[in-house]
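Backbones bend. We report:
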Amino acid sequence: MTPEIDDAFEAVEKEYGVGSIDRVRQMLDPARQDRHPQQKNAKWILPGLSKKPWHDPYEHPETAAVVRAFEAGHADIKRELADAWSLNRPSFTDYEHYLSTQSDWQALYLFRDGAPVLESAQVVPTAYRILDEYALRTATHCPLLESHFSTLLPGASVKPHCDLWNFSINLHLAVDIPEDCGIRVGDETREWVEGKCLLFDYSFEHEAWNRGTGTRTCLLVDLWHPETTLAERAALTALITEIRVLLGDSQ
């Protein structure tokens, strides 16, 4: 670790108590990592979190509030998204995943590079407002990642992969779902139900596809894993931010 990380960890423990970030320290020791086989390609595994690929969207009060707000706003979100797709296509860009960039996977960002994308407040106001009120202001959103509309064009697929870590989980609000679309996380394949949310741990191997004839759009929101503590969130934010600075990397 660097002196900056040591100082950050010391500050967290001064605020939250000695031992409050032991799991974060254990995460940094490869010999002590305990991971599910389907998490083998994830970079960071915080120990002690439930090893399950799918989460009940309504199980944890913290994440349930975000889920219910997005589901309640679905009709307006879908209408504004359709207007953006037809009238503000430059707002969408090729999605830049840390593994690849795909032109058949389009994204409209609401939060990126550690900050809200202010321009999106005019393009998709309902989604932006709900994200701000229920995820950003409550610190339920993981600031190390992003939030965006994810549009798979007909025939597009996302290859099987593990994302970087398990201490945040991914919310999918099904905005516009044609037939013949699906997502697999771990060993279980599910279909999106328009207007409803899925919640899953993307450190598990997962893939998605659109084999239909229309565009498939979900709103993706990265939330802190509900089993992480405030102390761990503070330490993890400092840790990953410093690592990115050192690597000159946005991931």
About this structure: The domain at 54-224 is CATH 2.60.120.330 (Jelly Rolls). The chain has a mean pLDDT of 94. Residues 123 and 239 are 33 Å apart (CA to CA).
